[in-house]
Amino acid sequence: LGQDFLERFVEESRQAVLLDHPNLKRVYEVGADRGRYFLAEEYVEGRSLKKQIETVGKLSQPEAVDIAEQIADALAYGHRKSIVHGDIRPSSVMIDNTGRARVDGLGVVKDAVLNLRYFGRGAPMVPYYLAPEQALDLANTDARSDIYSLGALTYHALTGQPPFDGDTPIAVGFAHCSEAPTPPRDLRKGISKELNEMILAALAKDPRDRPQDAGEFRKAL
């Protein structure tokens, strides 16, 4: 990743140590030791939201809304401090043994990592939850990008599939930028009209058409 990024990772990620919210996974220390860079964080007993969705297929509407509310609470806490997550996805959310959602990675510098993860050579991950502006340039990330990702995550939790799919990460990123998502209610009966509209609003292509921060989205939920 380069020495400059590693040094910036330590310096800027130290803000994560100061964050304390019941829906966040705590970061205890960020630093370097004998040339090795590290991040020490809380161990959470439970399983990732990704594993939970894979296990049950689809979450009930009350369960999906409850988890989305908790994630929105954590993001709103960060947004009030001008901290954007930038990579909300089911695998970045833990559900602990009490049922509480715990968001991982808030405040941790990750832009170079994201470029390799989603768009680098042999990219291991598909950008199922990245906002259109992030698919075009990961530097174009603000609170509204987190709202888009939370909308895509909730869409997946309810319907059993992400809003867009494709053969390559680039194809999925292009779909985020140019295609309209199938309304969740078309994929699963029983999703309320209001929740359907909220998810589609969160998935608006233009950030100005989405809820403007997680607090606003949480209030609507």
SSE blueprint and pairings:
Elements: H1 3-13, E1 27-33, E2 36-41, E3 46-48, H2 49-56, H3 61-80, E4 93-96, E5 101-103, H4 111-119, H5 132-136, H6 143-159, H7 169-178, H8 184-187, H9 193-202, H10 214-220
Helix pairs in contact: 3-6, 3-10, 6-9
What would you say this structure looks like, in words?
The chain is mainly alpha-helical and 221 residues long. Helix 3 runs antiparallel to helix 10. The mean pLDDT is 90. Helix content is 46%, strand content 10%. The chain contains 10 helices and 5 strands.
Comma- or semicolon-separated keywords:
mainly alpha, 10 helices, three-stranded antiparallel β-sheet, 221 residues
Number of strands: 5
Order of helices and strands: HEEEHHEEHHHHHHH
- Strands of the widest sheet, in order across it, are 3-4-5
| Helical segment count | 10
Uncertain residue ranges:
none
Q: What share of the residues does DSSP label as strand, in percent? A: 5-15%
Mean pLDDT: 90
Q: Largest sheet at a glance?
A: 3 strands, antiparallel
Using the alpha-carbon principal axes, give the shape.
globular
Helix content: 40-55%
Question: Kindly, what is the distance between the CA atoms of the first and last residues, rounded to a whole number of angstroms?
Answer: 39 Å
**What is the alpha-carbon Rg in Å?**
17 Å
Structural class from helices and strands? mainly alpha
Quaternary: single chain
